[in-house]
């Protein structure tokens, strides 16, 4: 496997609201390798967006550390590293209707990051970079003079991507980039992200709640529930051998385009009380090579037994 | 067969063609003025506002009216004249032509209101923008605001006028020393509303410094809010000037102003009502035209009204 680009270690994020504390993320560990798409999947409020925002430092990490290209980027960092992190980690937001400055031209929006770091010699070079970014996402040069409200949702999300591309980052956090889009243009944006990854060797942290999308897009998937990572495996492995009951319930909720199957499908509902953690608490265990689950030793044996007879490719 | 090949050719399909935007180019300020000038009432009141302002700044230069000089003070026949062809607004208790007095009074009141409003709104926007962003500054300024705003504005300016004494700059000082606070508070609230919107988070992720954040992300969203502030602030300050002068603590008697006129002429309201009606009407027209023009402009500067 290639080098580790981003490494999240024992991350914990707590929000303080007066006297009440709310821990949105606890003890989360994962690595993202260079050129990899890593997906975080979970239901609303599971803390997946918080993880993304903590990496890009909108939210501070309460405990734990985040490393990017070998350097610690959580906590207080010096100016030089700050610039390095901003230039190399960028974020695509969920709602393209809300994440563009309505009073600025596309030209300004796309070159905002370039202005911030003086990433151009002269006006010509800046224009060139803006046009290139727009072309890369399938937009026209004439769009530079337009305002965001003149574009459709899919176009706007591509403008968001162009703005990120202009910074030439190594790592992109995509926070549910297609959940606010029409089904018809989701594929357009996903394909674009996929192409860009191959062309530029980008790495993604892809945050989603839709497993089908993630299966198509991601190399590895982490399943998160109530702020805890429950299971982590390659996309293929996770769909073939879903071990954790929560992962299984998520998979059972995926709609099938076949009415017969859909009619007789039994939905699994995840009930945390199935775990018997009174005597032995869960820990992060590698059940199969590269396939991690949050389980105790009894569960680990059960999980392994359930899938040893099945070959992963047949399921 | 050959004929069809000539007549028909395959159309090429250009994917990018679907991305093209057919509509005309949008420009924010052009649309603002287009929307504004589409309304006849807007044109009428703007014209009235401009002519009143111009008149009050030009006419006193021609008339050379000076309240310290009363050339007709010793010719009682020129006193208390009713409006006529010679004296359009009549004359006052010292034989001054009211037409001259009204315009120099309006000029003085407008000057004070313009200067004080510029200071209040400028300082208010500046402080308010930083106030809305800074978590450290917020409790301090909030405490100051709570203490100061507990005292009514008019009482505050009265107290300050007693401290500074009567005069033009003293009055501007009295109006501005605490006047910017309420505007800053208003702007702070507006900034807080749009501060954490997603596009601002996006700018933060791009490393945009606070200064550009305020000028490019926050202020452009507040054009209509600022227009509203201006059209409320200027008539408000004209009123404050009038009230302070009417209470006898505003401008000294060597200055003409709308407030001074109402203060001096109020004793003749029963006998010679024209002396109070004309300054009152001019002041009313100035105030109303500010309100109407300001409100229509604030509406026009909201992009939701464009097209």
List the topology elements:
The complex is a heterodimer of chains A (315) and B (307).
Chain A: E1 4-17, E2 20-33, E3 37-41, H1 48-55, E4 63-68, E5 71-72, H2 79-88, E6 89-92, H3 106-117, H4 123-136, H5 153-166, E7 171-175, H6 183-200, E8 203-208, H7 211-217, E9 220-225, E10 228-234, H8 235-240, H9 245-252, H10 259-264, E11 283-288, E12 291-295, H11 297-308
Parallel strand pairs in A: 3-8, 3-9, 6-7, 7-8
Antiparallel strand pairs in A: 1-2, 1-4, 4-5, 9-10, 10-12, 11-12
Chain B: H1 2-7, H2 28-37, H3 40-63, H4 98-133, H5 137-149, H6 153-164, H7 168-176, H8 179-195, H9 198-205, H10 210-218, H11 223-246, H12 258-265, H13 274-300
Helix pairs in contact in B: 2-13, 3-4, 3-13, 4-7, 4-8, 4-11, 4-12, 4-13, 6-7, 11-12, 11-13, 12-13
Description of the molecule:
The complex is a heterodimer of chains A (315) and B (307). By secondary structure, chain A is of the alpha/beta class. Chain A has a single domain (4-308), classed as Rossmann fold (3-Layer(aba) Sandwich). In chain A, 37% of the residues lie in helices and 25% in strands. Chain A has eleven helices and twelve strands. Chain A has helices spanning 48-55, 79-88, 106-117, 123-136, 153-166, 183-200, 211-217, 235-240, 245-252, 259-264, 297-308; strands at 4-17, 20-33, 37-41, 63-68, 71-72, 89-92, 171-175, 203-208, 220-225, 228-234, 283-288, 291-295. In chain A, the strands form two sheets. Chain A has an eight-stranded mixed sheet with strand order 6-7-8-3-9-10-12-11, sandwiched between helices. Chain A has a four-stranded antiparallel sheet with strand order 2-1-4-5, covered by helices on one side. Chain B has one domain: Orthogonal Bundle (MetI-like fold). The model of chain B has no long low-confidence stretch (mean pLDDT 88). Chain B has 13 helices and no strands. The chains are: A alpha/beta (315), B mainly alpha (307). The interface between A and B is medium-sized, with 39 and 27 residues.
